[in-house]
Design goal:
Order of helices and strands: EEEEEEH
Shape: globular
Number of helices: 1
Structural class: alpha+beta
Radius of gyration: 14 Å
Helix content: 10-25%
Largest sheet: 6 strands, antiparallel, barrel
Number of strands: 6
Number of domains: 1
Distance between the termini: 36 Å
Length: 102
Amino acid sequence: MENNIENEEMFDADLISLLDDEGNEFEFEIMDEIDYKDGHYYALIPLFESAEGEDFEDTYMIFEAVEDENGDPQLAQIDDDDLLDELAEIFEANMDTEENLQ
């Protein structure tokens, strides 16, 4: 699933709106972004409730920045579980370091 990227700024948070394959729009806060191996990756915090009405309070999602056939920026889900685990470790280490600096 690939999603269109639209950046917004609100309340000093870096927000991004993603469209799913059916055209539904979802808002996320950009928690962090990194370059790793040959890709650029984003850790995003959902700013919406799940279909079951649950809040994603302590959840984040990782996407890879890619370009579509027209060269437009997109975010794509990561299918490689090992890569996803590696990225999660890096993002969580970054969060721990940031929290210790505050």
